[in-house]
Write a structure and sequence with these properties.
About 80% of the residues lie in helices and about 0% in strands. The chain has about 130 residues and is mainly α.
Length: about 130
């Protein structure tokens, strides 16, 4: 039997939850970038008489998609570091507390991601009308 198995299993479940979150963030970024590309191609094909159709937030859509993919990669990297540190702490005979710095960084990253999406959506809606 593995010593402290339940602690290691909980650590692994937490790591996998962060990986699932990162995959979802990256998939959403891919969707945003592809939909933005679709809108740009559609606008070009619908242009009549040399008057292009305006796509609100055209430049920002691709940028937001790439940014989301990069955030997903950063989330996986930070979650991996947290997983390894927690695994070592479980096996360590010393009783020490983890300052939760990585957890707060991951949470801050998700808040920044939410704010960036909110700004992008606000910009897109503002230029659409």
């Amino acid at each position: 039997m593995i010593r402290n198995f339940s602690d290691h299993a909980a650590n692994e479940r937490t790591f996998l939850a962060w990986v699932r979150t990162a995959i979802a963030v990256m998939a959403f970024g891919f969707l945003v970038a592809k939909f933005n590309l679709f809108l740009q191609i559609t606008a070009e094909s619908l242009a009549r008489d040399g008057h292009p159709v305006r796509v609100p937030g055209g430049v920002y859509g691709g940028f937001a998609g790439v940014l989301l993919i990069v955030f997903g990669i950063v989330i996986i990297a930070m979650a991996s570091v947290r997983f390894l540190r927690t695994g070592q702490a479980i096996e360590s005979p010393e009783q020490k507390t983890d300052p939760a710095t990585i957890d707060m960084m991951l949470a801050g990253l998700m808040v920044a991601l939410g704010i960036a999406l909110l700004v992008y959506l606000g910009h897109t809606l503002a230029t659409a009308f």
